[in-house]
From TrEMBL:
One of its GO terms (cellular component) is cytoplasm. InterPro entries: NAD(P)-bd_dom_sf, ODC_Mu_crystall, ODC_N. It comes from the Bacteria. This is Ornithine cyclodeaminase.
């Protein structure tokens, strides 16, 4: 899907170009930002929620261009994704190149996920920055879950999180920002020490009780809203059984249908995706061996007010958010802009 810029947007592109010329020798140098520099220049949780909301609304209104992510897979448990996007209202244009090696922490003492984001000047196309993309990915992913939870189940008093690693920690930090009526958070991980670590990491900012459960079934039975950030595999693990799901629950997986019984998507009253095109691509790759369930709408359409989302307290809703690059480039543009303003990063020759 292509997007034709409006006259006002074209003027904004030119204004941005003129500003960039005062900061960079365009076409001859770019700004390099390390992960620590991205954190320094990066948005807060509240600012991230707003930026990601803008990106998702643009996606819902079709004011963007974003081909489905393509990838390579050197090993069965590994993926690399190329994720380009263009969001004109945020002056954001670029591509993320990111990979996931689940074995890295244990075997090589390296992060599971690493990657780079490249942004371009829209007027001329020249690259203007190269930055770490792992940190902004870790920030934008829970923002989508938290925004979707608020749109689909704003009165929820309980939230359950499967997976207590980096993304589990981030989800707990974010969810209390959007679900204002939360009274309890339930967490589950196969490693007890990982649950303890999550509680320790968020205790200074999350004041409601965080409760460790002893089984996936217990978490499901206690939670109105649930999310999962585990692994993405073609062979579904079916850890959560369809028999455990009850009326009125909202399920927000970040790991496709790996963790959940695939039949749950079919029994849902509404099946919502952050991107139909992305999920169809994954289906073609074999991640949905039974095909995709009928899709009600996309996450951005709900945030943009184009679809009502939940219309009954008894509805079972599954909203799968695998991650879309409109969020990445919008986040990256915000980091780049602040870095330029505050003199963060290093200028490197092209």
């Amino acid at each position: 899907m292509s997007y034709e810029a409006t006259e006002a947007q074209l003027k904004s592109f030119q204004a941005q170009h003129e500003y960039l010329k005062t900061k960079l020798d365009l076409g001859k140098e770019l700004l390099w930002l390390t992960q620590e520099e991205c954190k320094t220049a990066g948005p807060t949780i509240d600012e991230t929620l707003e930026l990601v909301k803008q990106a998702l609304i643009a996606h819902g209104k079709k004011a963007y261009e974003m081909p489905a992510k393509i990838g390579i897979h050197p090993y069965p448990d590994v993926f690399y994704h190329a994720m380009p996007a263009y969001v004109p209202d945020n002056l954001a244009c670029g591509v993320k190149w990111i990979e996931c090696y689940p074995r890295n922490p244990k075997e090589f003492n390296l992060p599971q996920t690493t990657g780079l984001l490249i942004l371009n000047d829209i007027t001329t196309g020249v690259p203007i920055t190269v930055m770490d993309s792992a940190w902004l990915t870790a920030m934008r992913t829970p923002a989508v879950t938290a925004l979707a939870a608020n749109a689909l189940h704003p009165d929820a008093t309980t939230f359950g999180m499967f997976g207590c690693g980096i993304q589990g920690v981030a989800h707990v930090r974010y969810i209390v920002k959007t679900l204002k009526n939360l009274e309890k958070i339930y967490i589950y991980d196969v490693r007890d020490e990982t649950m303890d670590q999550l509680i320790e990491e968020v205790k200074a900012e999350v004041t409601i009780p965080i409760i460790k459960v002893s089984s996936p079934e217990e978490l499901v039975k206690q939670s109105e809203v649930m999310s999962s950030a585990t692994v993405i595999l073609k062979d579904t693990l079916k850890v959560v059984k369809k028999e455990w799901i009850g009326k009125g629950q909202t399920i927000l997986p970040c790991d496709l249908n790996t963790f959940w019984d695939p039949e749950i998507c079919y029994m849902a009253d509404k099946y919502i995706l952050d991107s139909k095109e992305e999920h169809e691509l994954f289906a073609d790759m074999g991640y949905f061996p039974d095909g995709l369930a009928p899709v009600a709408c996309e996450t951005g359409e709900i945030l943009a007010g184009l679809h009502p989302g939940r219309t009954s307290k008894d509805e079972i809703i599954v909203c799968s958010n695998v991650g879309i690059s409109v969020s990445d480039v919008v986040m990256g543009q915000a980091i780049f802009s602040k870095a330029l303003q505050e003199g963060i990063g290093r200028k490197l020759p092209l």
